[in-house]
Amino acid sequence: MTENNQKGDVHPIARRALEMAYTGIDPIQFDDYAIEQLEDMLKERFDKPDLLKAVVDLINLASILKEEGCDSASRQLIIVASSAADALQKQKEI
Predict the structure, then answer these.
(1) What region does 69 belong to: left with phi over 0, alpha with psi -120 to 50, or beta?
(2) What is the largest CA-CA distance in the chain?
(3) Would you state the pLDDT for residue 26?
(4) Which residues pair with 29 in a beta bridge?
């Protein structure tokens, strides 16, 4: 698989999260505005078929950040991903 194909496999919201990250006390952090933007982008996907992919990719990114010692950033992404719980449940019921 080429590098371009691998990039295509990551949901744009997860890719955008990396673009919004900055270096602070931890190697990777997010400010409050970035988290709000990510939550808004995820909310826009609530009725879309790619919502689950977006959530899974955010959780995978959070896991990678946790492994790299970026606990705060990891927790923030989990919170963003969890904001889609009700929407995912609603999709499942349909």
Answers:
(1) left
(2) 44
(3) 75
(4) 22
Return the residue matching tokens 């371009």. 4
* Confidence band for 22, pLDDT divided at 50, 70 and 90: confident
Q: Select from 69, 47, 45 the least CA-distant residue to 58.
A: 45
CA-wise closest residue to 8 among 67, 46, 80, 57:
57
Structural tokens at position 34: 């970035």
**Structure-block tokens of residue 15:** 């890719």
The predicted-structure confidence for 37-64, as pLDDT tens digits, reads as follows: 999 999 999 999 999 999 999 999 999 9
Name the token pair of 74: 């990891």
